Amino acid sequence: MAAHVSTASGQVIRLTEGTQLVFGRGPEVDLAITAGRGLSRRAGVIKTTSEGAWIANISRTHALY
Question: Model pTM?
Answer without folding.
Answer: 0.82
